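Treating backbone geometry as a discrete language has practical consequences that deserve illustration. The amino acid sequence and the backbone structure tokens for this protein are reproduced below.
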Amino acid sequence: MPFTVVVVLHDSAPELGVLLRSIDARLRERPQVVAVDTGSHDSGPAVAREWGAAVVELPENPGFGAASNAGVARARHDVCVLLNPDCELLDGGLAELAARAGSRPGALHAPRLLDLDGSLQRSAHPLPGTLGALVSAPLHPPLLPHGLRVRVEPFRTERPRTVGWAIAACLAACTPALARLGPFDPSVHLFAEDMDLCLRARAAGLPTVLHPDVRIRHAGGHATRRAGEPFDLLARRRRAVIGGARGGRAVLLDDTAQALTFASRAAAHAVVGGDARRPVRQLAALARARRA
């Protein structure tokens, strides 16, 4: 079935080239591709135009969410796939994901994301701010029985299943449903917009479904990792999104779960002589966000 792909660019020329070549190599028919550029300083828009994509230029860079919304507004087909430029198709699975979105329009559909080395990305997560998430936070997932581990780490599932939220590096849905959702809150410039989208969709009766048999390679964070991980901003955004979607009790539960998770990871690293700096920084950022 025909579908639209929306790609947001920000200095993404090398990654976009890989993505577009994989589309040509893996799909029988080209989808409509709408490339939304957010003030790039490289040749990304030219690469998109040369390939045949429609290019929307937003030089003031309104943010990932607003740029995605502008792309969805130009979709010609009934199914739209939000796709990061640092993704690469490994087979024809993207067309299958779009077909599933067309046959089940009342949901958001996510594939399994793989790192460059083929390992699983933590691309799907439980519903945040629940007692279940709190109870499981200090547990070491590899020691859990398989069924419980999949509940704690739903990205490991081998069957299609509903998840709390999924990374929007690749997300397919019925275009009218995406348009009704926004799809993104334009006030969110960057970070946690995918969690916000999935939680708002869930509240509107549209669950997020992970399809582990559809695999997409995802380099991850090419436009944001250059300056390092912004732990403070991530902590603030997560709290704001959960509070807006699920209320203050959910924020309190999630804060506690996050603190237990970071503390247990830091302790585990300390015991085995590993590098505990990342979870320690995450824990400190959460404490600052709570004080603010």
